[in-house]
Amino acid sequence: MQRREIDLVELWCRERTPENGWKHHPVVPQITGRHIDLIADADGIKTPIARLRYFGSPRGEGSWVLHWRDAEGTFQIYRNLPAVDAVSEILDFLASDPDPLFWA
Question: Is the confidence at residue 104, as pLDDT, over 60?
């Protein structure tokens, strides 16, 4: 995972949240090792929306896999989107997909 990919996710999160809602309902990235969790923060209640997991080398030669969070709080591979080379492909999918697994 490279810094430019992290920057892209951070920018996507800022753009995803309406400016008037930024302080109240932001979507924020939480970077941990080889994955980035997208967290919704509604009035201080933090809820993981999705996990973007990176498989590959630190040089950026790898793939990204999207995960959803089940009722038990465990992340599961989202089978309707295969692994992709660029994190932007997952972000585009999330921005255009109304799947209630992520945005309910």
Answer: no
Nearest Cα neighbor of 34 from 57, 54, 56 is 54
Phi, psi at 26, each rounded to 5°: -75, 155
Bridge partners, residue 52, by sequence: 36, 66
Q: Is 14 helix (H, G, I), strand (E, B) or coil?
A: helix
> Do residues 78 and 66 make contact, with C-beta atoms less than 8 angstroms apart?
yes
- Rounded Cα distance, 20 and 32, in Å: 28
Q: What is the pLDDT of residue 37?
A: 94
Residues facing 35 on adjacent strands = 32, 53
Residue 1 CA to residue 48 CA, distance in Å, equals 20
DSSP code of 20?
G
**Partners of 68 in the beta sheet?**
50, 76
Note the pLDDT tens digit of each residue in 59-76. 767 899 999 999 899 999
